[in-house]
Design brief:
The protein is about 10% helix and about 45% strand. The chain is mainly β and about 375 residues long. The chain folds into two domains: about 50 residues, no CATH class; about 300 residues, 6 Propeller (Neuraminidase), CATH 2.120.10.30. The protein starts with a helix and ends in a 10-residue tail after the last strand. This is F-box domain-containing protein.
Length: about 375
């Protein structure tokens, strides 16, 4: 009798495929990889299916990957769970400093050698060391980013730099295909007079934007963007607003611009609806109502990223008491203090999506 009960307890009852997929789709990527996948061959097949991985990616919510500037580099995730904010200590040590993230795959750079790169999926802990970058070790400027071609699922890493002769170079590596970095030609005769490349481009919707340094040519204000698919460089106009955006961020499948003024509790969010046509649209105009928990002497604040389906904006604020972190819910017009005391005092923050995505999967 006991043996029969034990056999029944170890048997997974038959469930319709659609129901199993629906259940698995609701689980976090790390749980799917470490716990659900080993349950049985049927579940493992579903979890490895590229169509399932893509669908899971599309419904996954963004988190904030927070990495301390000290050594050893400790990383945490800030996410919204159960209506509150949760900070999780990522005990795994990642290969360097995160430079960018795209659809669950992150790019890391060795802090001791800017020509050594890895890509990793923090949810599955899969890591790949990239071919050594054949570029100067001491460029005047350089930047790194990762993007994805939606039609094929290919991930590409982009490295742009200015050499000591003040010439600009663009190198691309397609993950899983290229054995070395490829130099691409830029069709625009950019000169040192009006272009600088920054260290934090924004990757969204198959386009990489170099937003920190916009510039003017013949009265036209723009920043640079790369179409990840065909590897071409384009000029994207900045939004025509009274107060120029001081920060740009990923917002769903679009680039968003955050504009405010010093000592002001008002800000606007603009969205780049069509990057090829340079069409911007104002999405939010916000007048923050400061709660009793928030100091009244906000000198300045900048956004770190969007969480919870782009409804909650995490802000870093400067006050007379020092730096503090807030979360503003644009739907509820509510602001809350976010406790990041578990994180390092100085850190870098990147918007990241926890997914099962892999650079070896092609769509």
């Amino acid at each position: 009798m006991d043996k029969k009960i034990k056999e029944q307890s170890n048997t997974i009852p038959y469930l319709p495929e659609e129901l199993i997929i629906n259940i698995l789709m609701r689980l976090p990527a790390d749980v799917l990889h470490s716990t659900a996948r080993p349950v049985c061959k049927r579940w493992a097949y579903i979890v490895r299916d590229p169509l399932f991985i893509e669908a899971h990616l599309r419904q996954s919510k963004t988190v904030l990957f927070i990495e301390g500037t000290g050594s050893p580099k400790k990383a945490h995730l800030l996410e919204i769970k159960g209506g509150g904010f949760q900070v999780t200590d990522l005990r795994h040590r990642f290969p360097g400093r995160m430079m960018a993230s795209c659809d669950g795959v992150a790019l890391f750079n060795d802090p001791n050698d800017n020509r050594v790169f890895h890509v990793a999926n923090p949810a599955t802990l899969k890591v790949l060391k990239l071919p050594y970058l054949d570029a100067p070790s001491n460029p005047l400027y350089y930047s790194n980013c990762i993007g994805r071609v939606h039609s094929t699922g290919e991930y590409k890493v982009v490295h742009a730099y200015e050499d000591l002769n003040k010439e600009y170079h663009w190198l691309v590596l397609t993950l899983g295909i290229d054995n070395s970095w490829r130099k691409i030609s830029c069709q625009h005769p950019f000169s040192r007079e009006y272009v600088d490349l920054d260290n934090f481009p924004v990757s969204v919707g198959g386009v990489i934007y170099w937003t920190d340094c916009d510039f003017q040519v013949d009265g036209f204000s723009f920043f640079l963007a790369m179409d990840v698919d065909n590897e071409t460089i384009h000029e994207v106009p900045i939004p025509d607003v009274s107060q120029e955006p001081c920060a740009y961020m990923k917002m769903g499948d679009y680039l968003s611009g955050f504009t405010t003024a010093p000592l002001s509790l008002q800000f606007e969010i603009w969205v780049l609806k069509d990057w090829r046509q340079g069409q911007w649209a104002k999405l939010y105009q916000v007048n923050m109502e400061i709660s009793i928990d928030v100091p009244q002497d906000l000198f300045f604040y900048l956004p770190l990223g969007w969480l919870n389906n782009d409804e909650v904006l995490i802000l870093e604020a400067l006050t007379s008491q020092g730096d503090m972190y807030m979360a503003y819910d644009v739907k509820k017009n509510e602001i809350k203090i976010v406790d990041l005391s578990l994180c390092a005092y100085d850190f870098y923050a990147h918007v990241h999506t926890s997914t099962l995505a892999s650079w070896t999967i092609q769509h």
